[in-house]
Amino acid sequence: MRDLLVAGGGPAGLVTALLAARAGLEVAVLEPRATPIDKACGEGLMPGAVALLSELGVEVPGLPFRGIHYADAARGVDALFRNGPGLGVRRTALHAGLADAVARAGIELVPRAAGAVDQDADGVTVAGLRARYLAAADGLHSPIRRQLGLQRPSRGPARHGLRRHYPVRPWTEFVEVHWTSGAEAYVTPVAPDLVGVAILTTARGPYTDQLARFPALAARLSTANTSGADATGAGGVRGAGPLRQRVSSRVAGRVLLVGDAAGYVDALTGEGLAVAWASAAELVACVAADRPAEYERRWRRASRRYRVLTGGLLWARNRPLLARAIVPAATRLPRTFATVVNELAR
Question: Cys-Cys link to 36, which of 70, 95, 210, 271 (CB 3.0-4.6 A)?
């Protein structure tokens, strides 16, 4: 019998499988979709995530970035990373690189959806396969999480994300975060001739309407596009949300949740993958030790910095008076801003 089945072959699931194989566990991944899988995301890997990819021997094409730049209509401030650069990389390129590493590691990829989960005292059966444990890495709206009754109602305004690529030469060595009332735009250089622009907002409407809320950014994108190509030709618009997902527990018997399936606060601070991969390491350690009940505590420890800092910033973002003060405060207190950014970058 296998040690671990991973339901979901996105970045969280594939890294879980790679870490499990490195720990000597027999692991297989369930994923019905063809590689590579795209997703609406900011596409900026923090330095901690870049370091883990290097440790796993995963090579992906992309552009390094030196830190984070916050800006509103009147001002801007930079925070430099202290422990190496981040990496802007297209989601499809990241997924292809991870899938290649999984294949090289000899990990079985089963082209099936997970479906119903059946577990007993000795193991878990799903999609006709059996293992001692199941890692549910099936995404933001995890069917397994809902099936097991672990979903909790979300509170606060529902935020959604939209992303489009622009065939323009990057003008910055930072990930830029542009702030306006009720929305942020994240600009990530991902190739010498391509930037991704992800918008997080509580408002509904097409991408062009959301981008129009950032007139200076929209004008720069229009001016910088010297290729003559239509921006939609770089992949069109992808969306995701609502982002906030509350979960009662990360453990249900022999099923352990990881990645977005384990609960999500917001993409505001851009460290979702780093936290998912840190949690994957904790999950693998608990499976290897045959102590699944410890995973909840270890998940909370691994995600605490993200949950506290992102939750606090989101709380301020949802209050108009405080939201208008975020960029001015970062400008007045650049060392504090840099400290927070580097805490999230680890």
Answer: 95
